[in-house]
Automatic annotation (TrEMBL):
The lineage of its organism: Bacteria, Pseudomonadati, Planctomycetota, Planctomycetia, Pirellulales. GO terms for cellular component: cytosol. It is an enzyme of class 2 (transferase). This is Anthranilate phosphoribosyltransferase. Belongs to the anthranilate phosphoribosyltransferase family. In the C-terminal section; belongs to the anthranilate phosphoribosyltransferase family. Residues 8-69 form the Glycosyl transferase family 3 N-terminal domain. The gene is trpD.
Length: 336
């Protein structure tokens, strides 16, 4: 791609004009191929951030990232991911990672996409490592895990190798950019169903609209009224249900799950070790707000893939998977 294309796009964004899908795709393609300078990457990302990233820009960028990622082969018709955008600064334990394991214990095939901490105190890769799960596996080992035990961890650093061309610039910028919204849109195993948490209503609306154009079978794009990028029991959770390109909005309350309200301050973990300890205790059967929050999130995942017809029925299934020891056993399999 001619380098003048970057300057054209930067000028365009600075004038408040959105880039097109193909235009964005070509620019991200150049970045990930090592054909763009750090200055070009940095200036474009900042110009897009200043303008506000558009839905078509997310779609084009996701298409480019998907072309560059290492794919995980599998034969599952239904495959769930619980990767969210992060960035809510809620300092909670790794809720979506725990949900992925409980969902797998309920018989759903799960390809959990994730990374080390970026905007949080503990990332999914950090907590899984703490739980004894090998996170640096190559694509063949990841595929084998998914095939044999019905769950795998797709470590973004390993399976998106082309991101090495932008990681330095992103670190130097030190702010959230377009790339922070792309992780959930680029699952290396091509997840068909997504429970996707977002940190703001703006991000929620944009990500839902992007998913509608990216051929995901179905997604619940969720945002808690308390600011959490999770299904929250602290007040209500808004869920945009994206199915076959169409969007419907639901509002869920703790009562819908048959659960009591939970303040998010009860869910904090200061580091991966604390987060891992909370998850172990949940899987050992310890009751309380952390467990209830995982049950609620898993219930949403079960409803999403039609394992249950209501959130309360789904919450019962999730509770059974924990109480029976199935979730603890699934974690042990993943670690092995």
């Amino acid at each position: 791609m001619p380098m003048s294309s970057f300057q054209t796009a930067i000028d365009q964004a600075k004038q408040g004009k959105d880039l097109g899908i193909q235009q964005t795709s070509d620019l991200i393609d150049a970045m990930l191929s090592g054909l763009a300078s750090d200055d070009e990457i940095g200036h474009l990302l900042l110009a897009l951030k200043e303008k506000g990233e558009a839905v078509d820009e997310l779609v084009g960028a996701a298409q480019a990232m998907r072309r560059h990622m290492t794919r995980i082969s599998h034969s599952h018709d239904v495959l769930l991911d619980t990767c969210g955008t992060g960035g809510s600064e809620s300092r909670t334990f790794n809720i979506s990672t725990a949900i992925a394991i409980v969902a797998a214990a309920c018989g759903i095939a799960v390809a959990k996409h994730g990374n080390r901490k970026a905007t949080s105190l503990t990332g999914s890769a950090d907590v899984l490592e703490e739980l004894g799960v090998p996170i640096e596996s190559d694509a063949d080992s990841v595929a084998k895990s998914l095939d044999q035990i019905g769950i795998c961890f797709c470590f973004a650093v390993k399976l998106h190798p082309a991101m090495k061309h932008v990681v330095g610039v992103r670190r130097k910028l030190g702010v959230k950019t377009l790339f922070n919204l792309l992780g959930p849109l680029c699952n290396p195993a091509g997840a068909t169903h997504q429970l996707l948490g977002t940190s703001s209503t703006d991000a929620q609306n944009k990500v839902a609209a992007a998913i509608a154009k990216l051929n995901t079978q179905r997604a619940f794009v969720v945002h808690g009224a308390d600011g959490q990028d999770e299904v929250s029991l602290d007040g209500s959770t808004t869920a945009i249900d994206v199915i076959s390109g169409k969007q419907t909005t639901h509002v869920w309350t703790p009562a819908d799950f048959g659960l009591l309200p939970v303040g998010r301050e009860a869910l904090t973990a200061e580091n991966p070790a604390q987060s891992a300890s909370i998850i172990r205790r949940i899987f050992d059967g310890e009751p309380g707000p952390c467990r209830d929050t995982v049950v609620a999130g898993t219930a949403a995942a079960l409803l999403l893939v039609e394992k249950a017809s209501s959130l309360s029925d789904a919450a019962t299934l999730a509770t059974d998977a924990i109480d029976s020891g199935a979730a603890k056993a699934k974690l042990a399999e993943l670690a092995k």
